[in-house]
Amino acid sequence: MTLEDLIIEMMPFSDELKLWCRKYHEFTKALKIIYPKRFINLGGVITSHHPEYSEEIIGVYTYDYKREKFIQDFMINKNNKIFTLYTRSPRGNSKYVKDINDFFLKYGKGVHYLNVHHSSSQDLPDEIKPRAIEAIKIAEKIKQAGYVSPTQEQIDKTYQQLSLINGGQWFLKEKLK
Predict the structure, then answer these.
(1) How many domains does the chain have?
(2) Pairing of strands 82-87, 97-99
(3) Model confidence over 30-45: pLDDT tens digits?
(4) C-alpha to C-alpha distance for 116 and 37, rounded to whole angstroms
(5) Which end of the chain is more exposed for a tag (fewer CB within 10 A), N or C?
């Protein structure tokens, strides 16, 4: 178990998306949530459906504490069989990782998903705001004390504890309005 694996396991992702992350490493490596030295994972997602497309759109929020900005990247879920991540990735595009501008060209027509890639805490959905406030507090602590990577022992212990709670479903899945 790596730190990246643990972060994915802690996300409120579907089992299919977690399996996808394990299988397609370029997809996982492009997720900002797995880079805690720069990004604070808000631990929540917002799902929606574009009126013209049948795919589920999954918005993943992170806090870039070096730039003090909230960022939302998007994943497209095509029937729990294919996932595509839209992000700003220094690694470039792949079959399953596309530039965020490609997302806006396809899904952002009209009034949909305007001004959501970079947000201030005031512009975030109400359901995410408490997590955003906590992320800012954590960022301040990291800036003061520095980031300390967890040891392998800590990662393994955390994973064991999470697996014991509620049969591995330790997080509360709640539909956000």
Answers:
(1) 1
(2) parallel
(3) 999 999 999 999 988 8
(4) 23
(5) C
Nearest to 42 by CA among 24, 28, 63: 63
CA distances from 7 to 2, 41, 149 (A): 9, 9, 13
pTM for the full predicted model: 0.84
For residue 66, tell me if it sits in a domain: yes
Round to whole Å and give the CA distance between 80 and 147.
35
**CB environment 98-125: b (16+ within 10 A), e (fewer):** bebeebbeebbeeeebeebbebeeeebb
Q: Tokens for 56, please give them.
A: 């589920």
Total residues belonging to the chain: 177
Give the max Cα distance, the chain: 49
Task: Tell me the HSE value of 167 on the side-chain side, using a 13 A CA sphere.
Answer: 0
CB of 18 within 8 A of CB of 108? no
User: What residues form DSSP beta bridges with 118?
Assistant: 71
* pLDDT tens figures, 53-64: 888 999 999 999
